[in-house]
Amino acid sequence: MKLTVFGATGGVGGEIVRQALAAGHEVTAVVRDPSRLSATGTTGESLEVFRADLTDPEALRAAVAGRDAVLSGLGARKRADAGITAQLTRSVVRAMEAEGVRRLVVVSAAPVGPPAERRPVVDRIVGSLVSTILKPVYDDLRTMEADLAASATDWTSVRPPRLQDKPVTGGYRKVVGGTPVSGRFIGRADVAHAMLAALDDLSTVKQGVGVAY
Length: 213
What we know:
Helix 3 (about 55-65) crosses helix 4. Helix content is about 40%, strand content about 20%. Strand 2 (about 25-30), helix 2 and strand 3 form a beta-alpha-beta unit. The protein has helices at about 10-20, 35-40, 55-65, 85-100, 120-135, 135-150, 190-200, and strands at about 1-5, 25-30, 45-50, 70, 105, 155-160, 160-165, 175, 185, 205-210. An eight-stranded mixed β-sheet has the order 3-2-1-4-5-6-10-8, sandwiched between helices. It has seven helices and ten strands. The longest helix is centred in the middle third of the chain and has 16 residues, at about 85-100. By secondary structure, the chain is of the alpha/beta class.
């Protein structure tokens, strides 16, 4: 497949690029600073690095034109960045709609999805505390998902809990339209794996997908 990846220098986005290249896909990595991608050692004949202003939908059209799908690892890295995910994703969506590209998979977060059924009390307490502390970040992601629901894209939102730096395992739980019970952690590499796997999974179209170990 011909894929475009936004947030390609981030933890999840970088994993998407590496795993997609390893799987034989042609990848366009959209970045603001190409040196950050080259510093990771990510290379390959099937990799195109596209430098662009992510706030400008017109500048992004060439990055998505003719692609089979778009994946986004965009997200706020701290509370002060809250608001940027929805803003930048709007630019991506507008560029996709202008070019007639429909398939989009984004990373979100577990608290944005519905609570897991039969949650233990400790999970409820911890979940409430985290949601309060990171409320601006999660509000940003909720706005992003609302924008996606109103768009013409065939979107999927992958919602992980706390992220870890671990090798890809493929051994995680997935709940389409829901949240895994007591799902507290998952590796960034496995989030990327889940996002790539969602591309061909029609059951995930226009759905949030909870993932966790």
